[in-house]
Amino acid sequence: MTPEQLSEAIRAALLQGIDDSDFQLSPFDVPEDIRVERPRQREHGDWSTNVAMQLAKKAGTNPREFATTLAERLGEIDGIDTAEVAGPGFLNIRLAAGAAGELARTIVLANGAYGRGETLKGVTVNLEFVSANPTGPVHLGGARWAAVGDSLARLLEFHEARVIREYYFNDHGSQIDNFAKSLVAAIKGEDTPENGYGGDYILETANRVLIEAMEVGEKDPLELEADEMQEFFRSRGVHLMFDEVKSSLHDFGVDFDVYFHEDSLHESGKVDKAVKELKESGALYEADGAWWLKSTDHGDDKDRVVIKSDGNAAYIAGDIAYIRDKHERGADLCIYLLGADHHGYIARLKAAAAALGYDPDTVEVIIGQLVNLVKDGQPVRMSKRAGTVVTMHDLVDAVGVDAARYALARSSADSTIDIDLDLLASATNANPVFYVQYAHARTAGVARNAAEYGIELDKGFDASLLTHESEAALLGVLGEFPRVVAQAVEYREQHRVARYLEDVAAAFNKWYDRTRVTPLGDEEVTDLHHTRLWLNDATGMVLRTGLHLLGVSAPERM
Fold first, then answer.
1. Quick one: CA dihedral 96, 102, 104, 107, positive or negative?
2. Rounded distance, CA 493 to CA 483, Å?
3. Distance in angstroms (rounded) separating the CA atoms of residues 137 and 448
4. What is residue 308's predicted lDDT score, i.e. its pLDDT?
5. How far apart are CA 450 and CA 432, in angstroms?
């Protein structure tokens, strides 16, 4: 019996109790989803629910009386061994061994679909993440957004959403101009200009621009006039950085469906069109020679300048046109993953959506915090290549893609994290990604050993044989997977999956230490061995599915 099936059984018992006048309630008072959770203390049972405490007041009784009546009904259901009232009205439920053990077969037969949901079926989600300026390699913050964003995309898809992974290239504005000036200064042997970019990659990029121009027989760009020279290095340098960013993200296991260029919003006239529309609708007003968005009407702390007094578009003008463009391309929900310095964007983006006539709740903004690298107990300050920042490449070089992705996705995006390179590179149980991956490899090893003894899934399964306390504990943890995934999807918190996988690994290792799938010595193979193979393989499947949702491999040997 899965937690979902138990929830349905409790709901059915409540509805039948209403029909029989045991509960003075309307059927509409009964929640669609009865919440069941693992008790904090394992000896209290397999599952616990507080539904009696939720409904007792409406039923005109106290929670313990309500729970006592419900417990009597639950005790009559096949698969439920006992239902006991605890505390102010909790119900602790213990499943019969056979009902609990059936979960192992359910997971294996689902063949990777266990834990899937349909809460987002029919919803198109535009998920924008990383979106760093194409002025240098992907930095450590960008690596975190890549790991978090791709994991969220996988989770949303696991709940049937159609996800468009989108990278917004900021190729319009002063930062790109400063990048071009930096390339020109580097190739001419001059100092980095004010507000420019340093690091070895700048000279590398400038040299590549020059070499490629020479290879195709173009005029020496160093002989061009200053403005032409800057434009030459700007266009080609940005293109080279685009390619490097895409390549490094691909190597990190992250590919995008759409690479959207900010410049295209301006060149296509979409910014002008959006601004004109807002002027006509009265969402913009003129003051001090500038045009302002009435963003305070939609919860922002102040109105925002859209067209500056010099006639140039402010950055938010592009944001407004971009929201419109996303919706016109079919997005029902637009999720942005932005850096720690973008808190002000939450209100302004929602205000922009509302001004355009969209529900502001179709815009979600997730703010990510900083990442610090630590090696030998000391912070890693900067990249040898980038000069001023630590890059994704530095992290991957130190610990590999799997460890990097897992470490970056393992914590809530809104928390600052320290990543210990020495720990992540270690093959110890203290290293969380090693701990989880090794547990998966161990399940694969158990299956290989079982095959040598002729222990196979199709030779026997008797759920009632899974009576060892470590089996009940492992089954209980496996039963939580659908709920963990659903919560990760609902709250956009991929780290819930990572922490859950560590719980699965811990429960599996205890079971592995205390029971055996293969016989000892001359012991004969029995249905217990076949049945335990189902539990072993179910664990492996959950670990494999969870790791996939994080974009991390599930090795079969380590």
1. negative
2. 13
3. 43
4. 93
5. 27
